[in-house]
Specification:
The complex is a heterodimer of chains A (about 400) and B (about 230). Chain A has about 400 residues and is α+β, with helices and mostly antiparallel strands. Chain A folds into two domains: about 200 residues, no CATH class; about 130 residues, Beta Barrel (Barwin-like endoglucanases). Chain A contains eleven helices and twelve strands. Chain B has about 230 residues and is of the alpha/beta class. Chain B is built from seven helices and ten strands. The chains are: A alpha+beta (about 400), B alpha/beta (about 230). Chains A and B meet through α1 and α8 of A and α1 and α2 of B.
C-alpha cells in the first residue's frame, strides 16, 4: 500500500514535470479553460445571484396587491376601500401603502418612496429596533445615502410637485445586506409621503393583503376583484412569474451563446488531447521501454488532465467570483439587466450554491475529462518497441 | 551455466493483410552469465529484432526465449514490463533520452514507477553521475550536452536499477574513437561486476575488442557463431 502511494506520488511528480516541460501548449489550454470557466461561472453566479435577490424581493412581496385602475393606468385610491374587504373570509390583514418614485433631478437619480402607516408593517424586519417614523424622519437605503452625500449629516430636502421644499431627517440606513431591496428606498410615514407627492388626505397607491392560508390566495383574489371592481388584483405568484420571465429570456439567450462556447472548447480540448504528436509517441515508447507499465502511462495522463483542469477550474471560479463581487458582473450586466442611466446603481450580492458549483464542474471539467480520456487510453497502446 | 536461452526463435511482422516479413529464422542461442557477446551483421539483418526479443520489448512469433529459467516469450505484457524494469538495461542506438529533461531526471526515470523516494533516486543517481563523470552536467537539459555525454547518460539510465543484463544496440555508432574507448572502459567495469553484456554492432572496434567473449554473425535473419 505504502509503495503504491509512493509510486503514484512519483507519477504525479512526473506529470507536473511533464506539464511544465510542455508549458507553451499547456498554458494555452489553461488560459482557454480558465476563460471558459470564467464566462460560464460569471454567468451562473450572476443568474444565481439575481435569483437569490429576486427571491429576497419576493419574500417581501405581500400575498395580494390591489391597485386602482382608470383607463388602463394605475391611479391613486382611497384608503377607505380597505374597509370593504373586512368581510372576506381568509384575509389576515389589509395594509394601506403609498409606493411611488421620486426623480431627483439634481443627482439624476430615481428613488423608491414608500409610505407606511407604521414601521411595523411589511418592512419591520428590515428596520433597526425601535425605529421611529414620526414627523419627517426617513429611513433610507445605502444607495440614496451615497448619492445624496448624507454620510456625515442628517438633514436634507426634496421638492414637492409645486416646487416647494420639504425637509427630511435621516433616521437610519437600511442594513447593506438588504441592498437588493432597499438600496434606492426612502421609507417614511404615509402622511410624509402624501405631503411629498402632493396627494390628498386618505389617498394611497395600493392596498396590501396578507392571507391566513397561502393555498387560498387565488380564491381571495377572486373575491377581492368582485368586491372592488375597477381595481387590479395582483397575486404574489403573478409577480414571481414576471420576475422570472424578465430574467428568464435573457439568461436563455446567454445560455445559448455559452453552449456554443462550451462546444468549441470541447472540440479544442479533443484536438489538443488527441493530437498525439510523433514526439509524444516516442516519449511514451521510451517510458514503456524502461519499465513504465500501461497503467503508469494512463495515470500520468490522467494526473496531467486532472491538474490542468482543476487548477483552471479554480482559477476561472475565483475570477468569476471577483467579476461578480468586485466588478458587479460588468460583462453580463447589459445582457441580463438591460441598460439604464438611473441611479442609485444596482449592486449585485454574490451568491453561490453547491448546485451552481456542481453544474459548473459538470459543464466544464467533466467534458474536458471525457475529451482527454480516450486519447489518454490510446497513449497506453503505444508499444515499447516503437523506439527501436 | 546458461542464463539466456533462445530456442528456434522466429519473428515475423505483418506489413499488410497479405504480406508478412520474416525477420528471424530458427534462432537458437545460449548466453552464460557474465559473458559478453557481440552480434555482427549488416543493416536489416535482424540484429535489433533479436536484441528487442532479448530485452523483452516484444515476444517471438514462435520458439521460446528464457532468462534465468523464466520463459519471457510467454509472459503477458504486465510481467514483460517488470522483466524490462528489473533484469535489463537497454542502451539504444539513438540513446532515446527525453530531451527536455535534465541529465539527472533522465537517469532517475526508471525508478519513478518503482515508487522510490526522490531523495533515494538522487542518491542512486549521484553514484552513477560520479562514475560516468556527469556530475557537472546533472542539471543540464539533455539536448544541450555533447553526444558522448548523452551516451553516458543513456548508460547511467540503463544501470540505475542495477540490472544483471546490459544490452547495447550499435553502442559506438555515433561515437568517435576516443569515446568508443571510454564506452568499453565502462563496459569492462560492468563485466567485472558480473553483468552479462549483449551487443549488436558492425563496428570492427567492437567486434575485435578483447572484452567480447563470443561473436555471432547475423545474416538474412539467421544466426551463426563466428570462428
Amino acid at each position: 500500500m505504502k509503495n503504491a502511494i509512493s509510486r503514484h506520488l512519483n507519477l504525479l511528480d512526473f506529470s507536473l514535470l511533464s506539464l511544465l516541460r510542455n508549458r507553451l501548449k499547456n498554458f494555452g489550454m489553461f488560459v482557454v479553460f480558465t476563460l471558459v470557466v470564467f464566462f460560464l461561472g460569471s454567468f451562473q453566479l450572476f443568474t444565481s445571484s439575481l435569483q437569490f435577490m429576486s427571491d429576497q424581493l419576493l419574500e417581501n412581496v405581500p400575498d395580494i396587491t390591489i391597485q386602482q385602475m382608470s383607463a388602463g393606468r394605475q391611479i391613486n385610491m382611497n384608503g377607505d376601500l380597505a374597509d370593504r374587504l373586512s368581510h372576506i373570509y381568509g384575509i389576515k390583514s389589509v395594509t394601506r401603502r403609498i409606493w411611488g418614485y421620486y426623480f431627483d433631478e439634481s443627482n439624476g437619480a430615481n428613488y423608491t418612496v414608500v409610505g407606511v402607516e407604521s414601521p411595523a408593517s411589511s418592512f419591520s424586519h428590515l428596520l433597526p429596533e425601535g425605529t421611529d417614523l414620526s414627523a419627517s424622519r426617513v429611513i433610507m437605503g445605502e444607495g440614496v445615502e451615497r448619492v445624496r452625500g448624507l454620510t456625515g449629516r442628517k438633514a436634507f430636502t426634496l421638492f414637492r410637485p409645486d416646487l416647494s421644499q420639504q425637509g427630511f431627517e435621516k433616521a437610519a440606513v437600511f442594513d447593506p445586506n438588504t441592498r437588493s431591496l432597499t438600496s434606492d428606498m426612502l421609507l417614511m410615514h404615509m402622511d410624509t409621503a402624501r405631503s411629498l407627492f402632493g396627494m390628498q388626505a386618505d389617498e394611497i397607491t395600493d392596498l396590501l393583503v396578507e392571507s391566513g392560508n397561502p393555498a387560498e390566495i387565488d380564491t381571495i383574489a377572486k373575491k377581492i376583484r368582485a368586491a372592488l371592481p375597477g381595481t387590479r388584483v395582483i397575486t404574489k405568484e403573478q409577480i414571481a412569474k414576471t420576475y422570472h420571465g424578465v430574467f428568464g429570456w435573457r439568461s436563455g439567450v446567454g445560455s445559448i451563446a455559452l453552449a456554443g462556447g462550451i462546444l468549441a472548447f470541447m472540440i479544442l480540448a479533443w484536438e489538443r488531447a488527441s493530437g498525439f504528436s510523433r514526439e509524444e509517441k516516442r516519449e511514451t515508447a521510451i517510458l514503456r521501454g524502461i519499465g513504465f507499465q500501461a497503467a503508469d502511462i494512463l495515470s500520468i495522463k490522467i494526473y496531467e488532465t486532472f491538474c490542468l483542469s482543476l487548477t483552471a477550474f479554480l482559477a476561472g471560479l475565483v475570477l468569476s467570483w471577483m467579476h461578480i463581487a468586485f466588478f458587479d458582473g460588468i460583462l453580463f450586466k447589459p445582457l441580463l439587466l438591460g441598460w439604464s442611466v438611473l441611479k442609485p446603481g444596482f449592486s449585485i450580492i454574490p451568491h453561490v450554491t453547491g448546485n451552481d458549483l456542481l453544474l459548473l464542474f459538470c459543464l466544464s471539467v467533466v467534458p474536458y475529462w471525457c475529451a482527454a480520456l480516450i486519447p489518454a487510453w490510446r497513449s497506453t497502446l503505444v508499444r515499447a518497441d516503437s523506439v527501436v | 551455466m546458461i542464463m539466456i536461452e533462445l530456442k528456434n526463435v522466429e519473428k515475423q511482422f505483418t506489413v499488410s493483410r497479405n504480406e508478412k516479413v520474416h525477420i528471424l529464422h530458427e534462432i537458437s542461442l545460449g548466453i552464460k552469465k557474465n559473458q559478453c557477446i557481440c552480434i555482427e551483421g549488416p543493416s536489416g539483418s535482424g540484429k535489433t529484432t533479436l536484441l528487442s526479443i532479448l530485452g523483452g520489448l516484444y515476444g517471438p512469433t514462435s520458439g521460446s526465449a528464457s532468462v534465468d529459467g523464466v520463459k519471457i516469450s510467454r509472459l503477458p505484457e504486465l510481467f514483460l514490463t517488470r522483466y524490462r524494469r528489473e533484469k535489463v538495461g537497454f542502451i539504444y542506438q539513438h540513446y532515446n533520452l527525453l530531451e527536455n529533461l535534465t541529465v539527472l531526471q533522465n537517469i532517475c526515470l526508471p525508478l519513478v514507477p518503482l515508487g522510490i523516494h526522490p531523495n533515494e533516486q538522487k542518491r542512486r543517481a549521484k553514484r552513477l553521475l560520479d562514475r560516468f563523470q556527469l556530475s557537472h552536467r546533472q542539471e543540464y537539459q539533455v539536448s544541450s550536452i555533447s553526444g558522448g555525454e548523452q551516451q553516458r547518460t543513456a548508460i547511467a539510465r540503463a544501470l540505475i536499477n542495477d540490472p544483471p543484463i546490459v544490452i547495447g544496440d550499435e553502442p559506438t555508432a555515433h561515437l568517435d574513437a576516443e569515446l568508443s574507448h571510454d564506452l568499453f572502459f565502462h563496459l569492462s567495469t560492468l563485466k567485472a561486476e558480473g553483468k552479462t553484456i549483449i551487443l549488436a554492432s558492425h563496428d570492427p572496434f567492437v567486434l575485435n575488442h578483447p572484452l567480447v567473449d563470443v561473436r555471432y554473425r547475423m545474416e538474412g535473419g539467421r544466426l551463426s557463431q563466428d570462428s
